[in-house]
User: Fold this.
Amino acid sequence: MEVIATNANFADIIKAAEPVIVDFWATWCGPCRMLSPTLDEIATEYDGKATVVKCNVDDCDEISSEYGIRNIPTLLFFKGGVVVDKLVGAVPKGSITAKLDSLLK
Assistant:
C-alpha cells in the first residue's frame, strides 16, 4: 500500500504494526523520479505486509526537519513508530527489499 504523508497524518502512519518505508522526495529531484517506479512496485508486492509512504519535502518541511533529511531521496524504515534503518540516494530495488525483508522476520 502507498500512502501520501502530510504534517497532520505522519505520526499516525508511522505507528502502524507493519513496517513502514517513508520516501522523502521532491518533484524537482531527478533521482527521486527514478526511484518512484521501484517504490510503486514494492508497495504492490508488499501490500498487506508493509506500507510505502511518499513524503514530499517541500510540503512536509516540519517532518523533514524533525528527521534531519538533508539529501533526497532518503528512505527511512520505521517499525513500531521508530526509525530502524535508512537508505540515501537512488538505490537498487534489492537493497530496499533486503532491508524490508529483515524487518518482516
In short: The first strand starts at residue 2 and ends at 4. The chain has a mean pLDDT of 95. The longest helix spans residues 30-45. The radius of gyration is 12 Å.
